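Risk register update: the risk of archive-format incompatibility is retired. Evidence:
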Amino acid sequence: MNKVVISSLVAAVALLAVVSRVAMAEEVKHEGTISKIEGATVTVKAADAQHEMTLSPTTKITLDGKPARASDLKVGFKVKTVCEKEGDRVTCKQFDATSGAN
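Archived output:
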């Protein structure tokens, strides 16, 4: 009986840890122009400030409405992003860029 109670308690604590970590992430959106690209870190200049964000392997990137890769992005492209902010770290889930060629 004690093993069942302890196992249930351990499972509940693990679940609580996962749920609290997900709850800590805040969704943020940015719109502006790419001003700098360094590896997976992109800086977007918006009307109010500059925002530094990270592109992850799971970030959905589009360029002019078509699927793209991080290597397709260039300084000067207009962007709209949806990111998750956790502390000072901002990781993009969606990164929609427009080259201006359209």
